[in-house]
Amino acid sequence: MNDASMTLSLVTQVSGALAVVVLLIISCAWLARRCGLAGHARAHGSSIKVESSYSLGQRERLVVVEVDGQRLLLGVTPGAISRLGRLSQPTETQSAAASDFQLTLKRLLKRRKAEPEQ
């Protein structure tokens, strides 16, 4: 009987230690994702940036991608990715106008939330 209780105790200890290790790994992965560390690691090693995407159907998309300073228009389907053309770099006024619109929209949404419902 003493032998069986020692075996059970050993199995319990090993199972408990394994559970603690698995929970530690899961919590570290959750924390890294929550803090944004996983996204930064991928972004720093890549010279490809998706600027925008437009859905044409259920599985077809137009995607503007910046690769090594060049902007490309790509057609993406389930079977292939095709380069449709090269785009010029956006001018500073276009970028500034987009950010101004974004700021204006945020301000309007905050103001609407602050106003009481009628």
From TrEMBL:
Membrane-spanning ranges: 6-32
Annotated family: Belongs to the FliO/MopB family.
Protein's name in the database: Flagellar protein
Lineage of source species: Bacteria, Pseudomonadati, Pseudomonadota, Gammaproteobacteria, Enterobacterales
Major subcellular site: membrane
Superkingdom, natural source: Bacteria
Keyword Membrane: yes
Signal peptide span: none
Localization per Swiss-Prot or TrEMBL: Cell membrane; Bacterial flagellum basal body
Native species: Mixta hanseatica
Entry keywords, A to Z: Bacterial flagellum, Cell membrane, Cell projection, Cilium, Flagellum, Membrane, Transmembrane, Transmembrane helix
Entry annotated with the keyword Membrane: yes
Coiled coil: none
InterPro entries in alphabetical order: Flagellar_biosynth_FliO (IPR022781), FliO/MopB (IPR052205)
